[in-house]
Amino acid sequence: MSAAKANTFVPNDSAVLDAVEYSCGGGAPLYMNAITIIEEGKTHIKSDIKSIEDFYNTEGNYIHTEIRHSYANKSKMLMTEEGNSLKEELQEPSTILISPDHANNFKLKNMTQEEQTQVKEHVLAYVEMVKKIDLRRGNE
Length: 140
Prior knowledge:
Distance between the termini: 36 Å
Largest sheet: 6 strands, antiparallel
Helix content: 10-25%
Oligomer: single chain
Number of helices: 1
């Protein structure tokens, strides 16, 4: 997968809010809203990635959506790693502020503060939904 438009690494626990188009294998588009936090210190690396990913085929027909939450913590001193990943698949497009109609013209730097807040709240709401689904499955 190659990034068409993205900026996904900011050190020092700063969040990057993305509304981007990626190109998957064969040129099929992937539309994504994401919150990415990567923190690197002298003794550790932490990452927390929350995303909504709409997948399309090369003809531009919608396939499915994946809601993901992945986090990891790696200790440089103890040489240990811990983390977890949740994923849920939906059958309706769920990204906001980016669509097949205007994806090629969209750039992250054009997002207003209001749009950034909108993306953050949207992604967090979907990730919270996935966590609740995962908890229900664990209690069955």
